[in-house]
Write a structure and sequence with these properties.
By secondary structure, the protein is an alpha+beta fold. Helices cover about 30% and strands about 25% of the residues. Strands 3-2-1-4-5-6 form a six-stranded antiparallel sheet. It comes from Dyadobacter sandarakinus. This is DUF1398 family protein. InterPro entries: DUF1398, YdfO-like_sf.
């Protein structure tokens, strides 16, 4: 297996390349550079990327920290996801909305092409498939 070492520069370049495109384009670019999955801490946007060979790259949060709700509200989670998919909200607003709906972490599984939204202590989950592009 080829050794894949992820760098912050690669991630930033992928984000710039996908800028203005729907999320599945970013997912495809990240997958193409060797990202297997990434986990986002909703409260501060700390992201841990894992390559296909298990190497990890942790990027510190770059947004103001806030407290996520302890109560999981599935319909509010789904509504926040729809609004961001339709371009009605930016990413910071999306994070705040899912945090207020009880999501503490989400994992983008690029191998399985799905996003897993997790509540406090991973007790509650909601999954969405990432469409292929």
């Amino acid at each position: 297996m080829e050794l894949i070492e992820l760098t912050e520069e690669q991630i930033k370049a992928a984000e710039e390349q996908a800028s203005g495109q729907p999320y599945p384009y970013l997912a495809k670019i990240l997958k193409d550079i060797g990202v297997d999955n990434y986990e986002v801490k909703v409260r501060n946007h700390k992201v841990t990327y894992t390559s296909i060979n298990g190497e990890k790259l942790v990027l510190p949060g770059d947004m103001p920290e806030f407290e996520c709700a302890e109560a999981f509200k599935l319909e509010e989670v789904k509504s926040a996801i729809r609004r961001t998919q339709e371009g009605q909200t930016d990413y910071a607003t999306f994070l705040r909305e899912i945090g207020e709906a009880g999501i503490h972490t989400y994992v983008a599984d690029l191998t399985g092409m799905k996003i897993i939204y997790q509540g406090p202590n991973s007790e509650y989950e909601y999954e969405e498939l990432i469409p292929e592009v």
